[in-house]
Amino acid sequence: GFATAAQSNKVTIGLIPADGIGREVIPAARQVLESLPKSEASPRFEFIHLDAGFEHFQKHGVALPDETLARLRGECQGALFGAVSSPSHKVAGYSSPIVALRKHLDLYANVRPVASVAGSGQKQLDMLIIRENTECLYIKQERIETDANGLKVAYADRKISEYASRRAGQMAFNMALMRDKLRANVPASERLWQGKPKVTIVHKSNVLSITDGLWRETVRGVKENNQALYSGVDMDEQLVDSMVYRMFREPEAFDVVVAPNLYGDIISDGAAALVGSLGLVPSANVGDNFVVGEPVHGSAPDIAGQQKANPIAAIRSAGLLLEHMGYSGDAARIYQAVDGVLREGLIKTPDLGGKSTTQEVTDAVCKRL
Amino acid sequence: GFATAAQSNKVTIGLIPADGIGREVIPAARQVLESLPKSEASPRFEFIHLDAGFEHFQKHGVALPDETLARLRGECQGALFGAVSSPSHKVAGYSSPIVALRKHLDLYANVRPVASVAGSGQKQLDMLIIRENTECLYIKQERIETDANGLKVAYADRKISEYASRRAGQMAFNMALMRDKLRANVPASERLWQGKPKVTIVHKSNVLSITDGLWRETVRGVKENNQALYSGVDMDEQLVDSMVYRMFREPEAFDVVVAPNLYGDIISDGAAALVGSLGLVPSANVGDNFVVGEPVHGSAPDIAGQQKANPIAAIRSAGLLLEHMGYSGDAARIYQAVDGVLREGLIKTPDLGGKSTTQEVTDAVCKRL
Ligand SMILES: CC(C)[C@H](C(=O)O)[C@@H](O)C(=O)O
Ligand SMILES: CC(C)[C@H](C(=O)O)[C@@H](O)C(=O)O
Q: For residue A269, which residues of chain B lie inside 8 Å, CB to CB?
């Protein structure tokens, strides 16, 4: 992390609930982290609350306060971000704080695992989406003009760089190897992905031959220029439109999927539909020096404050945070506790067809840690 | 059409099979058009074969010959386009002929109906996707530079204009009204969409506040500035990532969906997965003066030339072509014949789990006309 822990096992986590159900699921994730059994190797957590979000913007005129950034950099080794509300039309001066956070902390890869729970009777899949997290249309370079007929014409720049594409590609191939290693510990009958590890590159280079051409060539180059490391990883590719189609027809055909920012955003929401709820899908925004866990779902204003939100995406995001900070044992405990609750299928929030509250699901996970 | 028919009922259709299975499904669609029962009101078809595609490019150095464009403009009232192969990496001088065709003929709306067949036991949906067809990232303005470290950086322009957004929006609201009118003829028990007609606007204005902001405002304006015409049509909106999620969770929640070019491309492939096969989904590229029918699927080189291709997307595209040329009676005959074959479920190509050939499916449709 940016801030080096004073004592090696002390970990300071910034909690940024932001808007809506973020304020229910981030405390749930915190409770799970605090309930982890203490061992010599596991971290001792300190938490600090940090502000951000649309509501904060409405009150104070700023969506991501300087203080939040400064304290993340100065005091924290990682953070958990809840969810942010989007105003439905342009609000002068407002800009998404999570997009800004990714950029300011150089969190270049958004890691989004989407997997069915073995034995849950669901459609089987075990995908890891690596979404490039700093550029593409998210650079927010936009302009508007008026044409000769007095009509408006707007442009946005889409940026694809060799630098960012390579970092995202390396993350994809490294995670493919890592997943393969971890799978060795899973009984063969429970392994969803049986083959050689594989990275699928998503692009639209039949239309965007220069930008997506550069993306494609660079990610391919990660393997081609480092066969010693990656010869054990297969590589294929999908046009983004076909990817969405195939993901729904044969989700079991994918292992690691690597995509430019916007395609990754769309694909990960689509994949979430396959596992039954956006409320299950976590992510980690990963950089070389910092990690921010973040559920893939939004702020869900329609159910906020009613204890209806599914805390599992946030709880799993806390697991991803630990995993990418190097505490993979504690991360695995969290994943297994969540899988246990899901497999049992008794305690679930309304998005999964149940009647349990956010707190009840959180307690059930804690009991299994 | 650009070329006015000499005799009012004579219709000249340009056939552009292009690559791969395009060469099997376009003849199938032609056979269906030729098998339509002749009446006073129905058109007399003439067909002319026109070249285009990647294979044509490889032989002659041009993907969309001038002659094809000139004859479409000079002799045809409409066209059917098959599918085009995409080279997996950049080929100097090659550019997609279908994207060029849409632009040259000003085919500003890509109309993509995706519906389950009533009584087929499938997940029920009845969506019409209107995809803006001339701009967004499809303007192909791209450039590449080298940064201070000698690394490549590429940019693409994404264009959203008030002009194009309004035309797409008008098409969406007009089609919503049209569908509502046609539904009145369907027995209530067979109507998949029961409510007031609705247009859902897809965007990502939480990130692209200027370009997608302009898109959103302009499409909303179509209704807001013309309540006399459109007050009977509901309007809502979805962020593109949520749209893909919701489409898979509750496809029955959508009537007409209107999207910028690239989102529309992705959403329509996704919707195709819901009805069981890309081989079922047709489209029409519609302008004020010309229509090009085009199956949504690609050239499928893996099955080309083997009589395995599903001709239904192309046959339905011929129906859409007629519909948008004003021959809605003949179009309805085609749709009903196809639905009959699908509902019976006996004669189907391998993509639908059957063993029938392209020709057998085509013959079965013709028999029901
Ligand atoms: C809130 C929004 C800016 C964000 C994004 O598009 O990245 C969200 O959809 C996500 O996936 O984290
Ligand atoms: C072939 C390709 C350029 C095209 C597109 O992206 O528009 C295709 O996917 C489509 O949907 O018609």
A: 241-242, 244-245
